[in-house]
Amino acid sequence: MSLMHDALKKLEEGGGGGNDGPAVSASRGKGGCFYKIFVAMVVFIASLAAAAATLYLFKRMGVGRWAPDPVPINSGISEGKDAGHSPAPRDSLSEGRMDGARAHNLRGIKAYMSGDLEDALANFEKAIDMFPAYAEAHNNIALVYERLGEREKATDSYRTAIELRPDYPEALNNLGVLIDEDGNTAEAVELYRRASDIDPSYPDPYLNMAISYEKAGSLRDAISSYEAFISRTDPDSEVSRKLTRKVTLMKALYLEKMGG
Known about the structure:
It is a single chain. The protein is mostly helical and 260 residues long. It folds into 2 domains: 2-61; 83-259, Alpha Horseshoe (Serine Threonine Protein Phosphatase 5, Tetratricopeptide repeat), CATH 1.25.40.10. It is built from 11 helices and no strands.
């Protein structure tokens, strides 16, 4: 009711001016009070009508339509060229294994990108066998398991990657997408939040968080997360333009919801 409050306040400020004096103010009595309330109601109803009209025009013009909805972003494959991402080898033998694991990881990535999931799986398995603490290889093999429909193995591999490297935003985001699809929205949002806290410039978790909030009916949080994603992407990209229109519609819906 803040609009009504503002309208009443403006009328109060304007009602005591001029040369009316005490006698005129007294003569207004209850009629003046009813008039103020009537005007405030008119202002409030007019604001709701304006929001409804905006929403109607957006729908008629095809601006910000809900379909197709954004698809959650999976962060994809990780090369892990920097040994600092995983525990550093302690001796020459371990260092040699790490080099071999990297080579298999890169071969797995090439196979994955070309669509050869069988070869990708074999190479990621070899990378993990050679260097079990290789977090990126665990993330990558999880992606293969997802593509093969082995969701439980994918979940376990993502969790292993995160245990080995707790500050791994891509693995946190990927696990969030997977468990969100299984209905674990609360845990997924927490994973997205952790990923964004680790790397605030990383846009993917913000979009995934927005989709989760929207599914849960939390428009305000969804709007905020969509805007955070848009601010971290190319404003001229098709995705940014579509989401900007979507957010405009969501804001109109949110205003209408709050007014109702």
